[in-house]
Amino acid sequence: MSIEVRHISKTFGRFRVLRDVSLRVETGELVALLGPSGSGKTTLLRIIAGLEQPDPGSGPILFHDEDVADQRVGERRVGFVFQHYALFRHMTVFENVAFGLRVRPRRLRPSPTEIQQKVEKLLHLVQLDFLADRYPQQLSGGQRQRVALARALAMEPKVLLLDEPFGSLDARVRQELRSWLRRLHDEIRLTSLFVTHDQEEALELADRVVVMNEGKIEQIGTPDEVFHHPRTEFVACFLGQVNRFSGRLEQGKVHFASLEWEAPECALLESCPVHVFVRPHDLQVAVEPNGQPALGARVEYIHAAGPRVRLELRADTGQKLVAEITQEQYRTEQLTVGSRVFLSPQNIKVFPTQAED
Amino acid sequence: MVPLSRARQQVLPGFGLTLGLTLLYWSVLVFLPVAALVVQAAGIPWHQFVQTMAEPRVLAALGLSFGGSALAAGLDTIFGFWVAWVLVRYRFAGKRLLDALIDLPFALPTAVSGIALTSLYSRHGWVGQWLEPLGIEVAYSRLGVIMALMFIGLPFVVRTLQPALEALDPELEEAAACLGAGRWATLWRVILPTLGPALLTGFSLAFARAVGEYGTIVFISGNLPGKTEIAPLLIVVKLEQYDYAGAAAIAGVMLAAALLVLTIIHRLQSSYSFLRG
């Protein structure tokens, strides 16, 4: 079951939360809506679910190419998972999961035995069969979120929508639940859309990532595409750390910070000021000049705890930069705070500067 | 060796002092009068106690006091939920005024509200004159008693439910809606059970207040023995007839019954305790 929205806008008072957003999620896909808070991602999710109404004049909301914009929440058959679980605290885990079946109109309601079997199957799927008689308050955060998921799946939803599903869990549980959800999705293949502000989560979990900012979609692509080929400055900045330089584009060459860089992809553009982005791991660090064009810098801080060593540097131009090197290089080159190094970019992204900058 | 007293020092100081004051306060204000009553009632010879309690007038008064209070508290719980819902969920002109007026029965001298209700609902009152042709008699009837009890009990329910409703996560209702529940199913299966403890507290406060109410009722009920006479009034009547033993007997029974009811409610309440977390 695919999800498609066209030209959706939403205004709260005078605040425009969504500006003409269009998006298509293919059947069986797991797609992340990624953006900072206030980017409109949760609102978009709630509009798809039917929990919010888009502004008049917005386009259709299509589930499997059928317009559901006029259907109420309950009729759309969306499984919605809330950040804070929203479990019914006066019901046991079993009753929570059974809720969607028990409230069906009598002629559609499964028999008690069928409900029993279905709920048991779902609790087994989310690996919580042994907690069926507990109350939500007696569970850990990760367990509660899995109950919420089982509850959403019980009504056999057409699509699954998750609002910051791991938002209120601690780092380790988050990591576990993330890979668990990925496996579950591969198993049940339900079209799913989840909201997150955690770029790592989006890149790791999703088939495709929708990067949102200020009510607009900045880029849609596979995790690989959005990370390695950001289409806008915002995407480049939001997905991981970057070093940003101001420079100039002239005749297909980018000049920035005393360096010159061939930029064939910009060959057709006229001369203009540009911003140049270099990711920390794309800054090659050398203790002696090695013939490549390089920037002089001094090491200010070293963060060595982690799989890679992060260096905070001060370039000769006075700009602060961040570079990442391997633990191995860190040991062989014997870098210390104050060491003088030469930085040569390996890979750059060039964005013409917008007029308002 | 660490001195014992240091080892036992608590992070939160003043336990001894505050508990002592609490007990003193409670003893002077609550325990002593109640104990005096128990002693008084216990001194009545058994046959005299039975004789008093067997009087149809006494039984009727006790029945009206407890039955009427339970009915009034039940109705208050329904209307109080309604009022609290409107006050919490919607924004409308005059909301703050309405909110402030809720407390009025708390502050009004009971005699004033009793007289006001009576004059409204009596045969010639503003409302009563329209009800009389329909055969509905409010003042000087049991209906009037229930009405007055509802009047004084309503604020307890509203004020108990308001914070509970405000704390009710709207996501619960959204979750229910997503799962296909209509508004009615959401109300019955999600909202009301979640508010259970608050509803129960509101009910028991309204009930307790109604059982002990005197001032409002004596005006509106007409005090017809065996019909609209409430137990607290009957106690006063017995005292005026110098029947101290009879008064103490009724009072003792009221105390025991009130304790029993409140204990049951408390037990119900604590069965919810595992839901908090």
Provide a concise account of the structure shown.
The complex is a heterodimer of chains A (357) and B (277). Chain A folds into 2 domains: 3-238, Rossmann fold; 243-352, OB fold (Dihydrolipoamide Acetyltransferase, E2P) (Beta Barrel).
Describe the model.
The complex is a heterodimer of chains A (357) and B (277). By secondary structure, chain A is an alpha+beta fold. Chain A is built from ten helices and 20 strands. Chain A has two domains: 3-238, Rossmann fold, CATH 3.40.50; 243-352, Beta Barrel (OB fold (Dihydrolipoamide Acetyltransferase, E2P)). Chain A has helices spanning 41-49, 73-76, 93-102, 112-125, 141-154, 171-188, 199-205, 223-228, 233-238, 327-333, and strands at residues 3-12, 15-25, 30-34, 61-63, 66-67, 78-81, 159-163, 192-196, 208-213, 216-221, 243-250, 253-256, 259-262, 272-278, 283-286, 295-303, 308-315, 320-326, 340-345, 349-352. In chain A, the strands form four sheets. A six-stranded mixed sheet of chain A has the order 6-7-8-3-9-10, sandwiched between helices. Chain A has a five-stranded antiparallel sheet with strand order 13-12-11-14-20. In chain A, strand 9 and strand 10 (216-221) form a beta hairpin. The radius of gyration of chain A is 25 Å and the shape is elongated. The two termini of chain A are 43 Å apart. Chain B has helices at 4-7, 15-42, 46-54, 56-89, 95-101, 104-107, 110-121, 128-131, 142-166, 170-178, 183-194, 196-212, 215-220, 231-240, 244-270. By secondary structure, chain B is mostly helical. Helices cover 75% and strands 0% of the residues of chain B. Chain B contains 15 helices and no strands. Chains A and B meet through strand 6, helix 3 and helix 5 of A and helix 10 and helix 11 of B.
